[in-house]
Amino acid sequence: MMTLFTDRAEAGRHLASKLKRFNGADTVVYALPRGGVSVGAEIAESLGVPMDVTFAGKVCAPWKTSGATSRAATSEVPSWRRAGRAPSRPILPAGRVAIVVDDGFASSVKLQTVVKALRWHGAKAVVVAQPIASRATIKDFEGLVDDVICVELADDAENVWRSYVNLPRIMDDDVEDVVYRLTSH
């Protein structure tokens, strides 16, 4: 029987219980917006570590037949950072354990892009953590990360969204509120 999460926050609490060994001062949670931010906030609060939001997006790649590839967005500044509601600078991963968090819906290409960027920026270890992921997605990370931690594995991607009872659409304001709450104390 597959675990059913009430919402992303509950999923984050379940995932945090599997990440207790990473509660050191050298750990940072990197959440993928939008869904990963609610999950990541629960983990960061439970472990007592900082959280930052990381981005990966599609850019035009004329040499590829699909016309798009993922890249980590290091130069983009989200509106909530510009507005002063969060730290103006990202938390750098150099010498730290980087836990990359999503709600289970990010493509493996997007997650791999973030993982590679964190490695390039000097993370001493990279852990991918998701409440639920498809078995195929997990295989994509073999040899690329130090650990992959999931509460539940799904046989296919369709079962990922079925693992949530309540899955409301998350807006930029929601992300801003979570980041502000985490960084304002």
Low-confidence stretches: 58-71, 73-85
Q: How would you state the average pLDDT, rounded?
A: 78
Share of helical residues:
25-40%
Distance between the termini: 40 Å
Class computed from helices, strands and strand pairing: alpha/beta
In percent, how much strand structure appears in the residues? 15-25%
Number of domains: 1
Basic shape: globular
CATH architecture: 3-Layer(aba) Sandwich
The multimeric state of the shown protein is: single chain
| Spatial strand order of the main sheet | 2-1-5-6-7
How many strands?
7
Based on CA atoms alone, the radius of gyration comes out at 16 Å
Q: What characterizes the major β-sheet? A: 5 strands, parallel
Describe the structure.
This protein is α/β, with parallel strands linked by helices. The protein has one domain: Rossmann fold. 33% of the residues lie in helices and 22% in strands. The chain is built from 7 helices and 7 strands; from the N terminus they run αβαβββαβαβαβαα. It has helices at residues 8-17, 35-47, 79-82, 108-120, 135-139, 158-161, 172-183; strands spanning 27-31, 51-53, 56-60, 68-72, 97-101, 125-134, 147-154. Strands 2-1-5-6-7 form a 5-stranded parallel beta sheet. A two-stranded antiparallel ribbon has the order 3-4. A hairpin with a 7-residue loop joins β3 and β4 (68-72). α1 runs parallel beside α2 (35-47) and α2 packs parallel to α7. It is globular. The chain starts with 7 loop residues before the first helix and ends with a helix. 42% of the residues are buried. Residues 58-71 and 73-85 have low confidence and may be disordered.
